[in-house]
Design brief:
By secondary structure, the chain is of the alpha/beta class. It has one domain: Survival protein SurE-like phosphatase/nucleotidase (Stationary-phase Survival Protein Sure Homolog, Chain: A). The chain has seven helices and eleven strands. The strands form two sheets. A nine-stranded mixed beta sheet has the order 3-4-2-1-5-6-7-11-8, sandwiched between helices. Strands 9-10 form a two-stranded antiparallel sheet. α1 links the parallel β1 and β2. It is globular and about 75 Å long.
């Protein structure tokens, strides 16, 4: 199996290296990742300036992959079009240092890279680990590989897009995998006002994303309960029921009289 591995934490991120080691058990891995950290860039792409890509080598001197001066989505586009030895059959983005759950999927460069892989009709999975300064990426990668293999063995033949999140507690104790929807509650709008050494004001976002009481488990509530969460995603943002309703609306180009 030809696998493309990318991330948004950068080519030298420990989560990327841990995931690479595990994925080599199931296929040929090409790493194409940003040269520098691109967290929170979402699905931005580069088109007004050239994309620079340089080869990256392992300690043994073998070519490991490519470092791209661009976004995670850039990396996937360039990898599939130019850099991979053959078309990937699987795209993995991660392991990200920090969860990508709730509406964070809209901001995440990690998820955006997986979405870009899905654009190409390739099964793609974003993988994230809850932030911890002593993050156990090797353990997270082992668990992620097991889940990835189970996804591949059970999914339909059509390309699919998934978001996988692992809580810190799963690195210490066995955790169940729960298939859940994305939580859609917005982040809190709290900001702490501070001043820099020159007296100029600046603001630090302090709001947290709440998960309101619900009978339906979400990725946020599942993670808080200590579960590994898996969410199938789609990039078609069309609101289908509104589309059907609006089909009978009448429009013209002339301004209505007042």
């Amino acid at each position: 199996m030809q696998i493309l591995l990318t991330n948004d934490d950068g080519i030298h991120a420990p989560g990327l290296a841990a995931m690479e080691r595990q994925l080599r058990h199931i296929g040929d891995v090409t790493v194409v990742a940003p040269l520098t950290e691109q967290s929170g860039v979402g699905h931005s792409i580069t088109f007004l300036t050239p994309l620079m890509a340089r080869k990256v080598y392992s300690d043994s001197g073998d070519q490991r992959g490519w470092a791209v001066e661009g976004s995670p989505a850039d990396c996937v586009k360039l990898a599939i079009s130019e850099l991979c030895p053959k078309r990937p059959e699987l795209v993995i983005s991660g392991i990200n240092s920090g969860l990508n759950a709730g509406i964070n999927v809209l901001y995440s460069g990690t998820v955006a890279a997986a979405i870009e892989g899905a654009f190409f009709g390739i099964t793609s999975i974003a993988v994230s680990l809850e932030f911890d300064e002593q993050a156990r990426f090797d353990s997270a990668a082992e668990q992620s590989l097991a889940i990835i293999q189970q996804i591949l063995s059970q999914k339909s033949n059509e390309p699919q897009l998934y978001n996988l999140n692992l809580p810190r507690s799963a690195m210490e104790n066995p955790a169940e995998v729960h298939v859940v929807p994305v939580a859609t509650t917005p982040w809190g709008e709290d900001f702490e006002k501070r001043r820099d050494p020159r007296g100029r004001p600046y603001y630090w976002a302090t709001g947290m994303q709440p998960d309101p009481p619900s009978d339906t488990e979400t990725d946020l509530s599942g993670i808080r309960a200590g579960h590994i969460t898996l969410t199938p995603l789609q990039f078609d943002m069309t609101h289908r029921s509104s589309l059907d309703q609006m089909g009978s609306w009448q429009f013209g180009t002339e301004t209505a009289p007042t």
